[in-house]
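Entry for the shared binder. Reason: the reviewer on the internal report wants the predicted structure included alongside the sequence.
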Amino acid sequence: MIDKNLLKNLDQCLNGIVSSDEHFGIDEMRGLFYAHMITPDKTDPLPWLSALFYGARPKLDEAQVSALNSTFGAVYEAYNAMFIANELAFPFDLEQIDADMAQSAYIWCQGFFIGLSINGLLWFGKKGEKLKNSDKELAAVRNSAKLITGLATKDFSDFDKAKITELKAFLIEQGQQPTNDLIAATLFPNAPVAVKTLQSYGTKLMLAAVQKTASQPDQKIGRNDPCHCGSGKKYKKCCGS
């Protein structure tokens, strides 16, 4: 589990820069950092820092930059430690979910979705992308990313149209109006599997990058160089430790 004080410290730091409605709340942060961990290429921290301000990062003075880097870095290190220890998992128990937890989970999905969008080509693919029948793994990744998009935005126009049509028909048969909110609530139990699918794919790509580098003995990595696994940390503090 992530120390809640780390997230509170980051939240307070952001409050000292902009008003609370102009930056991520704690649940959104949790989703964003999760997406950060499973994304292979995260060497540039600026898009992630900007995401905390909904993409509109304000001009910061030296003290604010220092405080933001410190608090952001502390949360990053905590999540990275969980990821390396294989302890990072969907943070909500849907079998015991109540209204408050459901609200937190939806907000978490919004932060996670924005995190995926930072490297949208990786997760969502090119517009109009057509996959071969043999690309089952990638198809599962695309569907999982689109499910998260629908849960975060309550817009399922880009999700599996056949499934949405079937779900709407089922809800109507049950005497319910198939609103986007109800569709999201009905599909939400699939979120943990979708997150796990994305996480497995991102981790696979990271491991492949590490193995590729290891197979090239002439390519030396300095201890102070960015780690080849894409963690954003120096090699000596990551795979070279």
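Summary line for the report: The chain has a mean pLDDT of 90.
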